[in-house]
Design brief:
The protein is of the alpha/beta class. The protein is globular and about 110 Å long. The chain starts with a helix and ends with a strand.
Length: about 650
């Protein structure tokens, strides 16, 4: 008989403590996870197809991030467990100190719905399609939902532990949940943060159309509010910053208005309330209209309706008023606010608007793209868009859902038609070869981004493994870094081919099994997508240059690269044939690329309606005015609707 959830809790807690302790031990031993800077975003969206202004003279992102003492906000794509490890460790390369004990406020809204469909609706000209989660997301969601509440609590416990390590002594954490999980998360929070540091359970009341006749209708969420050190009484709480307007009942009591326009009521000197007339036995009690009612532990705020200006059509988006109340109450200007389940970016957007620093992370590519566009729309201060530099292989090895798959690298090698090396030949199980040829094959881990470093490793193996003398090396990857196209071009003369492992391979293995996939030969490995730009046109204009940049084509070599149902793959193929550039969701330009850091100084994206009236297309050409240089490199980066990134570098 299966154990009850109460019986499972001690094991969940012990496993979570052990995992958090192992992570912290690795950090102290020097084994660290780094952050890769994909983009330094200097918000400047296209408003008319013409950007006029000088390019900021920033040598690279790292100078601005830390070398000159300036803080930069961060949007991080990747598993928040790994992102928090990187933040705890710090990164000398990017000027990021360890943030242990430096975060003043954490708000998280971790989703809980084991029956939720985590597909993303994508609107394209003439059709809509549904994108299934990426491979990284599949791991995360499977890990979270496999055993329902038990899996969820296993996921959240070590993350809450790392958040505590990040909190400053005056810091607070708000955990936004609902009726599914509130009681259990409260037990975990008491264990990690201490029951004595529990401040409030907040209730957010709202109205929804859905009504049930089988239960009391659920019209609220729960938010657990803990501080780092309640006993010291130093945690930040600013009640007068979030007072609410007086009720009509209160205003009616203070019904008199004096000669200065201030409200008051009469009180009798003998203690009576509201005497009928003013005399020597009465006095005026004034209403302090500058404060309002002190905050209660329930908020009555509407959810976002379809017509709300801030609405982004993101399923779990929370209203800015809710986050504004929390951030104002538990942080001060200049404080650091973090959200490790960033979603639509509301926490960071509000933090920016009211003068706080911020870091936000999400494992979903759609969420990361939504946030980046939102911040540019808001014209926030320059920020870094980063990803996890190296996904740990242990994350896959410990994933119980895929234990039946066996050694995944060996499985992928077999499906590609390669043979593995024996342990006597090499200890690296990620390498194999095509029988009867001099072709070397390398399989990357599903929990890491295939990067320029991966390609370099493959090239080095081609030259040295088993004496070298390999004619070609094929790299099979799941997830790719933004600069992978550039890396492929760099090593083009080394005869490296990079192919995409089908994103639905794990599900196919679970349903059909390895032997069936081998027999029916249904697994296809596709080439990467790429961007094509027209030749740049440069016109000198005194001390400035005007550079005309225009996109020519976007090639997505196969819909099989995308986690879609078959009917949606057919729809996508039709769009590819008639309107390939419509797949570009976002593109940006660095007109003075230093070869290290992409500095996005011009951006356009779908839904930007300030330059056209077409929400399904970007503009595909622009003119940049920049200071004159005899030589420069212009880097153009594009992100498609599925989150794949490509870039082109042109020399002028």
């Amino acid at each position: 008989m299966a154990k009850s959830l109460i019986e499972e809790l001690p094991r969940i807690v012990n496993e979570g403590r052990r995992e958090a302790a192992q992570i912290l031990e690795r950090l102290s031993s020097g084994t660290q996870i780094g952050l890769q800077t994909n983009e330094l975003v200097l918000p400047s969206k296209d408003v008319s197809g013409l950007f006029k202004g000088s390019t900021p003279q920033i040598p690279n992102a790292f100078n601005m991030a830390g070398g000159n003492g300036e803080w930069m906000n961060r949007l991080i794509y990747g598993d928040n467990l790994l992102a928090m490890q990187a933040l705890l460790a710090g990164d000398a390369q990017t000027g990021l100190p360890s943030l242990r004990g430096k975060v003043d406020l954490i708000y998280i809204d971790p989703p809980f719905d084991s029956k939720a469909d985590y597909r993303t609706k994508i609107s394209l000209p003439g059709t809509d399609i549904q994108q299934k989660p990426t491979v990284l997301e599949q791991f995360a969601y499977a890990d979270t939902w496999e055993q329902g509440t038990i899996s969820y609590l296993r996921m959240i416990y070590p993350r809450l532990c790392l958040m505590k390590e990040l909190l400053s002594e005056k810091g607070s954490i708000y955990v936004h949940i609902d009726w599914h999980i509130c009681a259990y998360v409260k037990v975990l929070m008491d264990d990690i943060y201490g029951k004595e540091n529990f401040v409030n359970e907040l209730i957010w009341c709202y109205q929804e159309r859905e009504m049930s006749t089988r239960n009391y209708n659920r019209k609220h969420d729960n938010i657990l509010f803990y501080c780092k050190n309640k006993q010291a009484d130093i945690y930040t709480f600013n009640p007068y910053d979030i007072t609410e307007p007086y009720s009509e009942i209160t205003l009616k009591k203070f019904k008199y208005i004096d000669e200065n326009g201030k409200r008051y009521r009469l009180r009798g000197k003998n203690g009576t309330n509201d005497p009928k007339e003013e005399n020597e036995n009465t006095y005026r009690q004034y209403l302090d209209e500058g404060t309002g009612t002190l905050p209660r532990d329930w908020f009555n705020l509407p959810i976002l309706n379809q017509a709300a200006n801030e609405r982004l059509d993101y399923p779990t988006q929370k209203p800015e008023k809710l986050l504004e109340r929390i951030i104002k109450a538990s942080s001060n200007k200049g404080d650091l606010v973090c959200d490790f389940f960033g979603g639509s970016g509301t926490t960071a957007a509000v933090a920016e608007r009211i003068g706080r620093r911020w870091i936000t992370t999400d494992i979903g590519k759609p969420a990361s793209l939504v946030m980046r566009k939102r911040f540019i729309d808001q014209e926030v201060k320059p920020f870094l868009y980063q990803s996890i530099g190296d996904y740990q292989k242990e994350a896959f090895r410990n994933n119980k859902r895929y234990k039946h798959v066996g050694d995944l690298s060996q499985v992928v090698l077999g499906l590609y038609g390669a043979l593995p090396f024996t342990p006597e030949q090499t200890n690296d199980r990620n390498f194999g070869y095509i029988k009867g040829t001099r072709t070397l094959v390398m399989v990357d881990s599903p929990n890491r981004l295939t990067t320029a470093a991966t390609i370099r490793k493959a090239v080095e193996a081609k030259a040295s493994l088993l004496g070298g003398d390999w004619e070609k090396v094929v790299v099979l990857g799941w997830n790719f870094a933004f600069d992978i196209s550039q890396a492929i071009q760099k090593y083009e003369s080394s005869k490296v081919e990079v192919l995409v492992i089908p994103p639905d391979l794990l599900d196919k293995l679970a349903k059909k099994g390895y032997k069936k996939l081998i027999d029916d030969r249904s697994v296809r490995f596709s080439s990467l997508q790429y961007l094509v730009a027209k030749p740049l046109v440069v016109t000198s204009a005194g001390e400035n240059d005007e550079i005309d940049v225009e996109l020519e084509n976007y090639v997505l070599l196969s819909p099989d690269n995308i986690p879609l149902d078959d009917k949606d793959k057919e729809k996508l193929q039709q769009v590819l044939e008639r309107d390939p550039l419509s797949l570009i969701e976002y593109w940006s330009i660095d007109p003075d690329y230093d070869g290290v850091t992409f500095r996005s100084t011009w951006q356009d994206y779908r839904e930007n309606m300030e330059n056209d009236n077409d929400p399904l297309h970007c503009v595909y050409k622009t003119r940049l005015r920049v200071p004159h240089k005899a030589q420069r490199k212009v880097c153009i980066k594009a992100v498609d609707v599925f989150g794949f990134e490509s870039q082109v570098v042109e020399s002028v």
